[in-house]
Amino acid sequence: MYADDLLLMSGSLHDLQLMIDIVALRSKKLDLVFNTNKCQVIRIDSKFNETGCTLHVSGTVINFVTQLKYLGWFIISAKSFKISFHHLWARFYECFNSVYVKSHNFTEPVLLRLVNTYCKPYLLYGVEVVNWTASELCRMNYAYNSALCRLHKISFNSLDVIYGYSNLRSIDAEIELRTRTFFKSVGENRQLDCTSHVFSVRRVTCVFFLCFYLLCFYLLSCKLLSLSVLVPCLLVK
After folding, report:
1. In the chain, how many domains are there?
2. What number of other Cβ atoms are within 10 A of residue 133's Cβ?
3. Do 79 and 147 fall into the same domain?
4. Which domain holds residue 41?
5. What is the pLDDT along the chain (237 residues), one digit of tens a residue?
6. Is the Cβ–Cβ distance between 41 and 65 less than 8 Å?
7. pTM of the model
8. Continuous segment of H or E residues that includes residue 71
9. Containing H/E element for 85?
């Protein structure tokens, strides 16, 4: 669940209907209402073309779709998990054309800065978590390189000069760098969580023994505890 978007995943349609019923029941108790017009089902397996049976939420049939949008990504109904990147390229070209039409008289460094600031992020949205194929990377590179060629009024053969002069990274190099940084940060966070857990356990242990020793010394001072009882306790630690 993210904000007001809820995603349910199940290995079978029967279990999915049970999950929907549970969520609908809990939502009713919280006085929440589902927008049935936005509820959709997508199937990802070898029988993705078969609906099999209908699913319902609050008495309304949920439509099966071939493409589902969730958090800016378009998930495709197929034999395996696939994402459509067409919207990334479309949004990039749309943004580039809008910027270029209004500022084509600007100098090339200014235009390049505008493209990298407003257009390029459309190509790099969420790229860290995608398992890219060679053809998909080629299309991503082609989109960005086409923009550079139009911006600098050059051919594809001269792009190496532009990359070297502008100190730019290609889209596939940018994706590789972001992916490596992402997994590195995930590893560091996991290590930090483990380290914090160890420190918290040690901290609790130290506080426990400190309180125990203070109590023992207090009892000794009050002559309510003999030294022969305290020494074995210290040795056990």
Report:
1. 2
2. 9
3. no
4. 13-83
5. 556 678 888 888 888 889 988 988 888 888 888 888 888 888 888 888 877 778 888 888 888 888 888 877 888 888 888 888 888 889 999 999 999 998 888 998 899 999 999 999 999 888 887 888 888 889 999 999 999 999 888 899 888 888 888 888 888 888 888 888 888 888 776 655 554 444 454 554 555 445 545 555 544 455 544 444 433 333 333
6. yes
7. 0.64
8. none
9. none
CA distances from 135 to 113, 128, 192, 211 (A): 27, 17, 37, 65
Whether residue 26 is found in the same domain as residue 104: no
- The two structure tokens encoding residue 116: 């990298």
Query: Which two tokens mark 144?
Result: 């960005």
111 falls within a domain: yes
The reply to whether 105 and 66 lie within a common domain is no
Query: C-alpha distances in angstroms, 125 versus 4, 88, 91?
Result: 21, 8, 11
